[in-house]
Every structure is written in C-alpha cells, then in structure tokens.
C-alpha cells in the first residue's frame, strides 16, 4: 500500500528524470529515425583562390608586403582612370570595413591603381586611411589568380601572413562580403 507521500515522491522523481533524460531521448529518436535536420552548407559570396599563394614569397619586393604586414588586407584593383565606377568601388571598400564594427581595426583597405595617379584630394577627403599602391607585378598576379569566369576589378582578401584567400566580384553586395570577412576574422587567431 502506497501512501500519498510516497506517490508524490515518485511523481517528482519521474519529472526530474524526464527533464534530464527527455532531451537525450528526443535527440536519439531524431538521429535514429532518419530525420534529416542537419544544417545545410554555408554559402560564401567570395571565390576561394586555390592553390593558396603567399605574396611575400611570390613577390618579395611588393610594397603590399610592408603595408599589410600583420593585418588582413582588402585590396581593390583598378588599372584604368578612377572614374565614377571606381569611386563607387572605393566607397564599397570603405563601407565594408566600417560594417565590421569592432573588428575593423584588423582590416586594411588597399587601392591598387594603374599608371594614372588617383585624385589625392578626393582620396584624402573621402577615404582617410586608404593605402594606395602602384605595383604592376602584383596586379598581374592578382588578375591571373582570379577565376577566369569572373569579371576583373574586384576585391581580394589577403590574410596577415600574406596569403591570397578570396576574390569578390566588383558588383558584390557589401553585406555579403562583410559576412564572409567576419566569418574568417572570427575563426582567425592571427591579425
């Protein structure tokens, strides 16, 4: 004969066991019942550049090696005169860095231009902190590493060790580019 007190104790024990064992039982059921609830793969907006090339080893005399040492670098290339499309791309470059928030100090902005000198007054007024470089060897290397099916004039992400990592097409949504960069910065212990 069970008393009312014993019955309450058993109910409490069953409830406590259910709280701890219930999620485990549910997870086992989902796993073994063949429920496909695994997350789908991550889609990157940038194109991974493989095989990885280290710029310091490939182009030891490039001025980018000194400028980007220890920082992630987002490089925009434009070998023509910096027209309205170029200015919009530089704006995207600036805004992308700002969208990183507290992580923005880990990323340098680099403008790799051609023979025509960019408007220094415009750059000083609108793009403080932008590093401008002219390096035809670096431009040729970057152009050759870009996937052939993608248009030129995009953005290249270089890690703090000088490895060429990603290419972003010129018309990319800055939010999508920032999402990829944030993901890499979260995973990175360098820079």
Mean pLDDT over the residues:
86
Using the coordinates above, name the CATH class of the largest domain.
Answer: Alpha Beta
Judging from the principal axes of the Cα atoms, what is the shape?
elongated
**The number of domains:** 2
The percent of residues in helical segments reads 40-55%
Low-confidence stretches: none
Order of helices and strands: HEHHEHEHEHEEH
Q: Spatial order of the strands in the main sheet?
A: 1-6-5-2-3-4
The termini sit apart by 71 Å
- Number of helical elements: 7
Main sheet specs = 6 strands, mixed
Care to count the β-strands? Answer: 6
Task: Tell me what the structure shows.
- The chain has a six-stranded mixed β-sheet, with helices on both faces.
- The model has no long low-confidence stretch (mean pLDDT 86).
- It is 44% helix and 18% strand.
- A hairpin with a 4-residue loop joins strand 5 (155-158) and strand 6 (163-168).
- It has seven helices and six strands.
- Helix 4 crosses helix 7 (174-187).
- By secondary structure, it is α/β, with parallel strands linked by helices.
- It folds into two domains: 1-38; 47-187, Glutaredoxin.
Question: Would you spell out the secondary-structure blueprint of this structure?
Answer:
Elements: H1 4-32, E1 47-54, H2 55-58, H3 63-67, E2 72-78, H4 84-98, E3 107-113, H5 120-126, E4 131-133, H6 136-145, E5 155-158, E6 163-168, H7 174-187
Parallel strand pairs: 2-3, 3-4
Antiparallel strand pairs: 1-6, 2-5, 5-6
In short:
This protein is of the alpha/beta class and 191 residues long. The protein has helices at 4-32, 55-58, 63-67, 84-98, 120-126, 136-145, 174-187, and strands spanning 47-54, 72-78, 107-113, 131-133, 155-158, 163-168.
């Amino acid at each position: 004969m069970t008393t009312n007190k014993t019955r309450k104790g058993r109910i409490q024990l069953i409830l406590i066991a259910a709280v701890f064992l219930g999620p485990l039982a549910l997870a086992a059921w989902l796993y073994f019942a063949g429920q496909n609830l695994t997350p789908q793969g991550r889609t990157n907006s940038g194109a991974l550049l493989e095989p990885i090339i280290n710029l310091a080893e490939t182009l030891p005399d490039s001025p980018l090696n000194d400028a980007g040492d220890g920082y992630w670098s987002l490089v925009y290339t434009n070998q023509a005169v910096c027209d309205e499309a170029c200015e919009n791309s530089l704006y995207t470059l600036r805004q992308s860095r700002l969208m990183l928030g507290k992580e923005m100090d880990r990323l340098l902005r680099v403008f790799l231009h051609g023979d025509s000198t960019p408007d220094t007054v415009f750059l000083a007024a609108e793009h403080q902190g932008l590093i401008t470089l002219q390096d035809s060897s670096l431009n040729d290397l970057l152009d050759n590493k870009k996937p052939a099916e993608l248009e030129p004039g995009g953005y290249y992400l270089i890690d703090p060790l000088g490895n060429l990592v990603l290419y972003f097409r010129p018309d990319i949504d800055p939010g999508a580019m920032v999402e990829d960069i944030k993901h890499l910065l979260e995973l990175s212990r360098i820079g």
